Structure formats: C-alpha cells, structure tokens
What we know:
The protein is mainly alpha-helical.
Amino acid sequence: xxxxxxxxxxxxxxxxxxxxxxxxxxxxxxxxxxxxxxxxxxxxxxxxxxxxxxxxxxxxxxxxxxxxxxxxxxxxxxxxxxxxxxxxxxxxxxxxxxxxxxxxxxxxxxxxxxxxxxxxxxxxxxxxxxxxxxxxxxxxxxxxxxxxxxxxxxxxxxxxxxxxxxxxxxxxxxxxxxxxxxxxxxxxxxxxxxxxxxxxxxxxxx
Length: 206
C-alpha cells in the first residue's frame, strides 16, 4: 500500500523550499520520474535520495516519521539541550553531508535493518511492515547520531574520566580514537572522512 503520509510530507518540503518539482529534481539530482514516484507514494526514497533531500535543509527525521523533534533517550535529550547550538541535529546533518557521511549512515542503517528483518522472518515467518522498517532505520540512524554527539564531546575535551580516574589524552589520540570508533560503526571504509570530520570539530571549524 502506498505511503501517502511520507509522500505528503515530501510535497510539503518541496513547497517550503520554494522550488517546483522540476527544480527540486535538478537541485537534488533525483531523476524527475523517480521524484514523481516518491510524491505519488509508489516508491520510497532510499539512502542516497534521503541524503540529497537533506542537503535541501529538509529534516529527514520529520520526513520519515512526521515528528518535528525527537530524541533517542533522556541522556541524548539532555546533551542536546546543554549544547543546543553546537550539537543540534540540523547542524550535525549538514556537517555529515559535507563529509559524505550522512549517506553512509543512512545506507548502513538500511543494511542493518534488512539484516534484522531477515532474522525476524527466520523466527516468525513474517516480515516487518514497511512503516516498521522505516522506524527501525530511524532508530539505527538515531543511534549513530547519539554516538557522534558523544564522540564530538570526546574530541573537544582532553579530560576523560574512566572508573573514577581522570585521564588526559592528547588531541591526536582522541581524534584517532573517535575516528576509529565511528569508522567501525559505519562498516570500516570511511577512515579519512571520519578523521576530517572530528578534526574540524576539535579545531573549532564546525
């Protein structure tokens, strides 16, 4: 059954961008016929399309779920409130897209969701519904955002507490550790991208 709710939100997003459908297609490089299928609800945007749409300042969380604002858990909620300007979801999305990481987060979340769906099919003989898979992908993306927020805080703070012991780690060590952790979380092929992202956060460029 076509997902009219998602298609309606996409139509609203295009209207907010002050673009015609044709202009939106050209600016996102989403083929016009494909965009029409999204708008009719006959197809759903994949990872690459979501990344392109995000670059048009569209809140992908809202596009997928209809929720304007949401948080993974109370700890992430507090972190975003305490660092509203520095760690806002919108800014993180823009910066991830700048380093070609947002599409990887979306793509890898889709792969993980497919694997979880396969496990569910093996256990129950049934597949998740589309909206359930979308929500699962969203939770996986949220998990990566939560991790990234913590890693940004880690690279910008040279004092680390471990088992009630304060440790001082060099800038280079913290950069490498954060880069390795995020790189591993995204499949292990984006070491330069993750390192550059955290370098610019640590230096204050972002």
